[in-house]
Design brief:
This protein is of the alpha+beta class and 119 residues long. It contains 3 helices and 5 strands.
């Protein structure tokens, strides 16, 4: 599990555009954004996938969502809305095996017919 790119970002071995940091989590801008705001919220304690969440680390996962809500409020997109999503394993689109919450905002991201109504 050690040695992922996220471990290197946490240890500051490689740079990232950091948005927020506390003792449990680190938030940085995605290098390939899919929305005007696309940040990755990662735990500082490595957990490989959603399948590896258990009773001992469940509070840490909750903390990631609390950070997402806090940042949405602080950066002014909570009321407009945002997406918070985790991918799991290859077929789920996970490419780094250190669990991470994608926080996306800044444009409508609903179901396609909903998006058509927004135009």
């Amino acid at each position: 599990m050690t040695g992922t790119i996220f471990d290197k970002i946490i240890s500051k071995e490689i740079p990232a555009d950091i948005v927020y940091e506390d003792d449990k989590a680190l938030v940085f801008k995605d290098i390939s954004p899919q929305a005007p705001i696309h940040w990755l919220i990662i735990p500082k304690t490595p957990i490989a996938t959603i399948n590896d969440i258990n009773e001992s680390n469940a509070q840490l996962i909750g903390h990631l969502y609390l950070v997402a809500a806090k940042l949405a409020k602080e950066h002014g997109f909570a009321e407009d809305g945002y997406r918070a999503v985790m991918n799991c394993n290859q077929h789920g689109g996970q490419t780094v095996y250190h669990i991470h919450l994608h926080l996306l905002a800044g444009k409508p991201m609903g179901w396609p017919p909903y998006q058509e109504k927004m135009k």
